[in-house]
Amino acid sequence: MEQWHCFKCKEPMVESDVDMAYLETTGAIEGIRCPKCGATYLLEETVVEKVNKVEELLESK
Ligand SMILES: [Zn+2]
Predict the structure, then answer these.
(1) Where are the domains of the chain?
(2) From the first residue on, what is the mean pLDDT of each consecutive set of 10 residues in the chain (61 residues)?
């Protein structure tokens, strides 16, 4: 996996579950967290995957 660094403090980020809310869906997905300042980032590819699934669900209603 690619190594990410916090854009604020340049600490190496650690993998962590991150809560997200998008449209009507909430849940913890894979993301990264800065151990120093606690900032969390979602991994873009994970978000895209999740959002695509949500949009499929919404369209199939
Ligand atoms: Zn940080």
Answers:
(1) 14-59
(2) 85 87 77 91 71 82 70
